[in-house]
Amino acid sequence: MGILRKIAITLGVLVIVAGAALFFLTRGQTAQLSVEDVVGTEPTLAKPQAESVPTVQIAQPVGWADGEVPVAAEGLSVQRFADGLDHPRTLYTLPNGDVLVSLTRAPKPAEQPSGIMGRIQAWVAGYLFTKAGSAGDSPNQVVLLRDTTGDGVADKRSVLLEAGLDSPSGLAWRDDTLYVANHNAVLAFDYALGGDRVTSAPRKLMDLAGGGGHWMRNLKLHPTEDMLFVAVGSVSNIGESGMEVEEGRAMIWEFDLDTGRQRPFALGLRNPNGLDFSPWSGELWTTVNERDMLGSDLVPDYLTNVPVGAHYGWPWVYYKNNFDRRVKHPMPAFLTEYTRNPEYALGPHVAALGMVFTAEGHKMGEKFASGAFIARHGSWNRKPPSGYDVVYVEFDARGNPVGKPVPVLTGFLREDGKTRGRPTWAEWAGDGALLISDDTAGIIWRVAAPGAAPGAGIARVKSERLPPARELRDPTRQREADYLRQNAPQQVN
Prior knowledge:
Shape: globular
Structural class: alpha+beta
CATH superfamily: TolB, C-terminal domain
CATH architecture: 6 Propeller
Distance between the termini: 117 Å
Number of domains: 1
Strand content: 25-35%
Number of helices: 4
Largest sheet: 5 strands, antiparallel
Radius of gyration: 25 Å
């Protein structure tokens, strides 16, 4: 057989295999539950339907036409704060009102795939990334946006930083120092407020597990400004690449800025993203993207508090006591005893990313004065699609989430299944408006209630400490004694 014929046969086989892969990728399971059924404090968790090939339904980005804007909730208005940006992801507002935005994409893989199946998988992944609008080289820039006229539009723009950046995402600032999380390290740069350019060399604070399926690394500075929290997602869906490659991942790190000490803060979080501190309790909260390939109804992404030492079960368990039978790695002892149940489900496959709590000085009006705003980036593996919006989750007076998510911005997903954009991050502008990044459209949206006065901050919940126990007592006997003392007939002399 001639060499040309062998090449032709090989190419034919590759085309057939690739075509079959694409065929199966266009199939998949259709949801039996609505997204509304799988959100809130008591979501409906369907029976898992393990998939050998994931359900795929990608909304192709087509952009926003001139004059088009998302649909804002009643009482709110939306406008473009900035546009023409190359894949903007995270946002950070400096104390002087300047807004920083990371222009970033996934890092290039460290190794090229080997073998026919590896190349086919890489080709399919590239095709899917391209269709979703996230393919291409990372711009690796932090851009500064400044509104000098107060009209809600950034009229000044400059590349603040690009040297030393490698798929940057998380941003924070304190004491003339700008912190940036690359996919593989946390860096610090000298930067004084008001400057248009960072000229200092980076200082590495800590290494991070680089690359992986979930490559974004968010940062959040503690209100006391002595601790930096770093969210790092997993490589895989359920540890199918081995747990060794998951070292340092699927967790939130705590880094002491004064001593340089670092420690794991919380574990078992498949892909934590948004980070913010509860104004009611001061506790850290996060949004988390849960696992895939259990059907269109599972598993819901979530919003939850993150106490120190918490574990949320990944990859073995989800939602406290639901075992993922696909995971073959030995489960840590007593995992189910200390695994926490997430506080609030955000819906299956919605890809919950940026999150902020209502802040003092906000201009969102009374309807949105006590809760959290969350960007749901949108599904790629659910039929029908979920997310592609910004929602508000109300919290009660004691700082607990209640009810169902309330739409704040919609209209990203068109009726024909294509998407104008994908909401990615949420941040407060210096004037109290809410900023939302739209990565595939290259836009930063500004949302506010016209004419609204700056809103009051949320009061910290305070309670009395329990008195120290002076002796050990059996609580059951103590309750019985208290009951008898209060209810027994009184003696009559």
